Structures are given as structure tokens and as C-alpha cells.
Amino acid sequence: MANHMRVMGTNEEMRKIQFTGKSSYIVSLPKQWIVDMGLKQGDQVTVLRQGTSTLQITPLKHHTKPINTEDATIEIKPEDESASIVRKLISLYLLGFSTINVKPKSGRLKPAQRNAIKEAVKGILMGTEIIADSTEGITIQVLINLFELSVDGALKRMLIIAKSMQNDALLAHEEANFDLAKEVINSDDEVDRFSFYIIRQLKIAIQNEHMLKDMGIESARSCLGYRLIVKNIERVGDHATVIVKDLLEFKKPIKKSVLDIIQEMNAFALSVLDDACLSLFKRDFAQAELTVKRTGDITKYEKKMLESTKSIRDDEEIYRVRRMGENIRRISEYASDIAEIVMNMTIEKTLRKQ
Predict the structure, then answer these.
(1) Burial per residue of 225-256, b for 16 or more beta-carbon CB atoms within 10 angstroms, e otherwise
(2) How far apart are the C-alpha atoms of 47 and 31, rounded to whole Å?
(3) With b meaning 16 or more CB within 10 Å and e meaning fewer, what string describes 95-134?
(4) Residues 125-181: tens digit of each pLDDT
(5) Residues 132, 165 within the same domain
(6) Would you say 346 and 237 are in contact if contact means Cβ atoms under 8 Å apart?
């Protein structure tokens, strides 16, 4: 069949349609693709029609192909700090390993080291469970099914938590509620939890391109867009944490008339963030474009907030108000960034429609 092939480019080949039997047409498949997919004669493939002129061919066995059954083992030194151990666990989790073994390089794991591992599994590594635990080592298993929670589904939950943190941060200021402020800080771990889960899914998707559609992702190129969007939503939670830490540090609320204006500004920033994320879930270029334009209106609220500081006599409080406004303005900027990413992800589809 090689004499019927003309190379068009690195990943594009031209092949002739041939007629065989009474009513069958056949096209040969590239040998290198067969080798890469680990296929042999007799294996089955699915053929899916996409649009009017495109067919997608997928090896049937890839629908049930395990993602990553490899084990990873890390050795912990007696002097290793908890933060260092957790960073290593997160790295292996993001790499997609299904089993992670943690062992002492010598002697036994210290109680503080074991507690750090358990807290990481419980608090920030979604879908993991400790299946073996002793002073000689801990084994962590990733149990979550790849398709139990889609990337969009996880992103929606992450967004809800980040927005709730931001609203609670301002409520804590209004009520001088220090307990609520501490809850906001604790919620940041939950945002990180979804962030790590999504990044893990994206990495698996890039390595297993045949699974992209099952994950609800159009192409491997879209994974980069999702990664940037996740980072922006993660930062919303970070800003909420900064706002409540201000309250815990100074132990004084902001003047109510000024805080009311700040809350208006916050409501606007979160509304454009909602619009940006909705344009992602709907794959809506037009809405993303409108959101980018709308985010510029944050300057109106910022000017109003700065004007309100003229009624404050305390320089320290003025500084705090301005810093709070800066944190909220950043959220509208993240909304604009997300909307621009959505535009980049959907422009080709928009041009095809036109």
C-alpha cells in the first residue's frame, strides 16, 4: 500500500480509497500509528463521524486502558521538614501515579512526618486514601475514578469555594468576626485540593490524547488554557486570605460606609468572574468578548472607593482600604484573563460557523 501514499507533512498523509468486494471501501492505516497504539491484526477500532467530512478512529481497547498503574516511592530523611514532604507528595500526585509509597531512608518516620502525610491525604490530595500505615512507611492509593468528576465539574466547585471565601472575607470585616476569618484561611486548602485534582487530570489527558473527549476537553491545546484558568481562580482564594489576614493582624474593622462601597466593588468583580467562567462552560466566544469589555468598569467602583477614604482620619485605615481595593481589582483582572483564554480556545469554532 506504500505506493498509494504521498506524504503531506509531519502528521498528514494522503491515501487512496480502494474498493473491495461488492460494497466495501477500505483505506490503509499508517504503520507507525499502529505501532504507537500497540495494535495488531484483529484488534478493533471505533469509527466516529464528526461533522460532515471528518472521521475519528480510536482503538477500542483504549476506552478501558488503565491510566497509570505505576508505583512511586520516596525516601524521607530524618531531617526532612513537613512542608518538603508534602511538596513531594503533591508532585507525585500531579504526575498521575496511582500508588505512592513513603519510606524512611533510615530508622523510622517521625510522628510529625507521619502526621504531615496524613493531613495532606485528608486535606489536599483529592481521591486518595492511606492503605498501609506504620513507622516503617505509609502507602497512599489514588482511588478516584478518572471520569467521576469532570474537569469542568471540578472547576465549578473550585469557583464556588473561591467566591464564597471572598464574600466571607468581607463579612468577617463587617462583623469583626475573627472565627469566620480563620475559616476563610482554612478554606484555601479546599481550593488547592480541586486545583491539584484538575492539574492531575489535565496531565493525564495530555499523555492519553484518546481520552480528551471523554474528559470533556476538545483538544490537547485546550489543556494549557484550562491550566491558566485554574491558576486564576486559585488566586481569587489567595486574595480572600490576604483580606482576612489584615483583619486578624489589625483587630479593627473598616468604617461601615466605606466597607459598603468595597462590597459593591466586590460584587461587581465576582459577577464578571462568573460571566468569564460561564463563557468557558458554554464555549461562548461572544460572551467572553463582552466580559473582557465589561471588566474595565471596575475602575468606576475603584474611584468611588478611593473617594470614600476622604472621610477616614486614620492613615493606617486608609492604607488598609486601598490594599483591600487592590485585592478586589485583581479579581476583575483575572476574569478578563479567563475570558481572553476562552476567546483563544473558541476562535476557530467561531470562524468555522461564520
Answers:
(1) bbbebbebbbbbbebbbbbbebbeeeeeebbe
(2) 18
(3) ebbbbbbbebeeeebbeebbebbeebbeebbbbbeeeebe
(4) 998 999 999 888 999 998 876 567 888 999 999 999 999 999 999 999 999 999 999
(5) no
(6) no
Boundary of a domain, candidates 119, 142, 165 = 142
Q: CA-CA distance, 189 to 125, in Å (whole number)?
A: 10
Are 19 and 134 contained in the same domain? no
Q: Are residues 165 and 18 in the same domain?
A: no
Whether 45 and 6 share a structural domain: yes
Do 156 and 290 belong together in one domain? yes
Total domain count for the chain? 3
Report the run of H or E that residue 298 belongs to, with start and end.
Answer: helix 298-308
Long-range contacts formed by 65-70: CB under 8 A, 24+ apart: 65/208, 65/210, 67/96, 67/98, 67/146, 67/204, 67/208, 68/96, 68/97, 68/98, 68/204, 69/98, 70/97, 70/98, 70/99
pLDDT tens column, 267-303: 999 999 999 999 999 999 999 999 999 999 999 999 9
What is this structure's pTM? 0.77
- Copy the grid coordinates of residue 306: 478611593
Phi, psi of 20 (to 5 degrees): -140, 145
